[in-house]
Specification:
The protein is an all-alpha fold. The chain has one domain. It is about 85% helix and about 0% strand. The chain is built from six helices and no strands. Helix 2 packs antiparallel against helix 3, helix 2 packs parallel to helix 4 and helix 4 packs antiparallel against helix 5.
Amino acid sequence: MLNNIFKDTVMHQYYMEMARKETMQELCEEFRQTLQLIIQAHFPMLIHIAKAQAAQINNFTTIKTVIDQIGTAKTLEEAQNALLNWQEADASSA
């Protein structure tokens, strides 16, 4: 009952938005770590690039796409392209 009373208030919406943003940031951080683990396991020569690029990605969908591309990369070149070209893909989806 109280939940319904506060649900439509500006403060409730503000706190819900803050919680959503915090959750997305935490999720992005977990995905950054996952990306680095995959790189370390399969393409260790790219770990420095992966750390630098992962630190710049702030969009959950983008980092998930990079992880998918790295996970399916068969060559070092494919993995490197995924790490270096995510900004182009991110810009085209905006």
